[in-house]
Design a protein that fits this description.
It is a multi-pass membrane protein. 67% of the residues lie in helices and 2% in strands. It contains eight helices and two strands, in the order H-H-H-H-H-H-E-E-H-H. The chain has helices at 2-28, 36-70, 73-93, 110-123, 129-132, 162-200, 219-244, 252-256, and strands at residues 205-207, 210-211. The chain has a two-stranded antiparallel ribbon. Helix 2 (36-70) runs antiparallel to helix 7 (219-244) and helix 4 (110-123) crosses helix 6 (162-200). The protein starts with a helix and ends with a helix. Mean pLDDT is 78; it is low at 130-145.
């Protein structure tokens, strides 16, 4: 039973890691980036999606944790499972109405596409720039087509097109952001570990017979986000938009910073 339990938790973790990044990108694809109105809506989409997620997390931690500790762990896990199946059913109902990206290379595996650029760049590492940009073998990379960063990847131009090379460069540009976000991940992980351990040592009884589960203390994180997202989206972003003339108010990089 213990083995089955932990295997189930690992499967849940794999499933969550697979759908969370996809649902955000797929949701963003439903907006036209060239339409000013939809660009504003796209900016708000991420805010309100996070708002909905935090509402769900807060509700789940208030209700499910109480059920698990006071009634039944099976019931506590069963109720979220039913809601997950219901959400999947509702998601599939809209299959015919979704927008699907027709971006170049969409029919090719992105890992294979980007990985091929690195492989070809390594294969051609001994070639000179003159050999690499041989007009008889490949298209010349014009100044407005390719970036000047990570020029060693341009050696893959013999067998890869400009878009694929620029995609590979974009992945490398994400590395500093990824490393910076590791610090946030370390801090954020404390709410699900240290908070619970500290909560377990506290007197959490509200009244005789009613004890707040230690894991429910995570709700303070979600509650803070729920309070500040409307302020950010309805107050701060319109003010920023009036200064920057950017439909999103501020850029994605500025949001991270």
């Amino acid at each position: 039973q213990v083995t089955l339990f932990f295997c189930s938790l690992y499967i849940i973790a794999v499933g969550q890691g697979g759908y969370k990044p996809c649902i955000k990108v797929f949701g963003a694809d439903q907006f036209d980036g060239d339409d000013p109105t939809e660009t504003k809506a796209k900016s708000s989409y991420f805010n309100w999606m996070m708002f909905g997620i935090c509402i769900s997390i807060m509700t789940s931690r208030l209700v499910s944790n109480y059920i698990q500790e006071n009634l039944s762990w099976s019931l506590g896990f069963g109720i979220p499972s039913v809601f997950m199946l219901l959400s999947l059913f509702l998601f599939l109902l809209g299959t015919n109405s979704y927008r699907y990206s027709d971006a170049r290379g969409a029919n090719k595996n992105p890992f294979a596409r980007i990985g091929r650029v690195f492989v070809e760049a390594i294969k051609n590492r001994r070639k000179t720039d003159l050999d690499t940009y041989n007009t008889n073998e490949t298209l010349l990379l014009l100044p407005d087509q390719n970036s000047k960063q990570w020029r060693f990847l341009d050696r893959a131009a013999i067998s890869c097109d400009v878009v694929e090379i620029e995609e590979a460069k974009a992945v490398l540009r994400l590395v500093p952001i990824w490393m910076t976000c590791l610090v946030y991940a370390i801090v954020n992980a404390q709410s699900s570990t240290l908070f619970t351990k500290q909560g377990a040592t506290m007197d959490r009884s509200i009244s005789p017979g009613l004890v707040v589960p230690a894991a429910t203390l995570h709700c303070f994180v979600s509650l803070t986000i729920v309070i500040f997202i409307p302020i950010y989206d309805r107050l701060l972003i319109p003010i920023a938009r009036s200064f920057t003339q950017n439909p999103s108010g501020i850029t994605m990089l500025q949001r991270i910073g």
